[in-house]
Amino acid sequence: MATNSMSIQMRKGKPITRDGRKISSKMLQDTQEVEKLITNKDATRFMQPLRGTPAYWEKTLKDLNAMVRQLGKPTFFLTFSAAEMRWPEVIEAVKAQQRQQVDFSQLDWNAKCDILRSNPVTVMQLFEKRVDELMTILILSPAQHIGEVEDYFYRVEFQARGSPHIHLLVWIKDAPEFEGLQDDFVVIKFIDQYITCQMPDPNADSELHKIVSEVQVHSRNHSKSCKKGNVMCRFGFPKLPMDKTILTYP
Ligand SMILES: [Zn+2]
Fold first, then answer.
1. What is the DSSP letter of 226?
2. In this predicted model, what pLDDT tens digit does every residue of 117-148 receive, in sequence order?
């Protein structure tokens, strides 16, 4: 993979190694030379523009660290997972491209998986559109749902079965600082303004109540990752909600 990426990068410019030699395709055929290039970070340097490579993420991490130095610690760390299995429009769009119609409610888990797998590009495109829309609503909206956003950073990752999720960092203007710099009650007030573990009222918003009870609740049966070693659930569930928010210190 390193050899291929470097060949592509070579066509774009005139790469020189750190010790001043011109990188030739002959050099790339030589395993020892390639290893030397990787050790000197010459190889990784050429891979930097290639999204997803270690060199790419190394640069991204540097950029992110620069943001933390400039802006301070981020206020929110949010994870959003794709729920293609619950999105009829994704399944229907994939089928429509194959000039077929499906009744989403009649499909079982395996049938949905097969359809999603048949066109991962469309699935990803629709996910990307959702992410864009999420950013518009959550980050850029003048309604300031999570406060006035100073800056944000997110990264898309893929689970084993190929389902994407994003990790998002958000910096909020004038957010109180944790760690004893401010009174606890100021921090608690801020948290309570935006975060709750309360079950939504089914009468007030039945759809929200349904979504939260289906995907935001730790399963009674737990999952595979719950049981590691001898513990019943390494996440410590079930947990009872507390009456009020408290801050705990080590
Ligand atoms: Zn569990």
1. G
2. 899 899 999 999 999 999 999 888 999 999 99
Distances (CA, A) of 134 to 75, 92, 119, 209, 244: 18, 21, 23, 20, 29
Question: What is the pLDDT, as a whole number, of residue 248?
Answer: 84
CA 165 – ligand 1 centroid, Å: 21
For ligand 1, a single-atom ion, the residues with CB < 5 A are: 222, 226, 233, 237
CA–CA dist 207, 119 (Å, integer): 29
CA of 229 to the centre of ligand 1 (A): 13
Distance 228 CA to ligand 1 centre (A): 10
| Dihedrals phi, psi of 133, to nearest 5 degrees | -65, -40
Buried-exposed string 66-86: b where 16+ CB fall within 10 A, e elsewhere: ebeeeeeebbbeeebebebee
For ligand 1, the distance from its centroid to the CA atom of residue 221, given in whole angstroms, is 7
**Closest Cα partner for 216 from 192, 234, 197, 244?**
197
> For the segment 170-203, what is each residue's pLDDT rounded down to a tens digit?
999 999 987 766 788 899 999 999 998 888 999 9
Dihedral of alpha carbons 190, 191, 195, 201, sign: negative
Q: Can you spell out the DSSP letters for 108-154?
A: -HHHHHHHHHH-HHHHHHHHHHHHHHHHIIIII-TT-BTB-EEEEEE
Find the 238 Cα to ligand 1 centroid distance in Å: 7
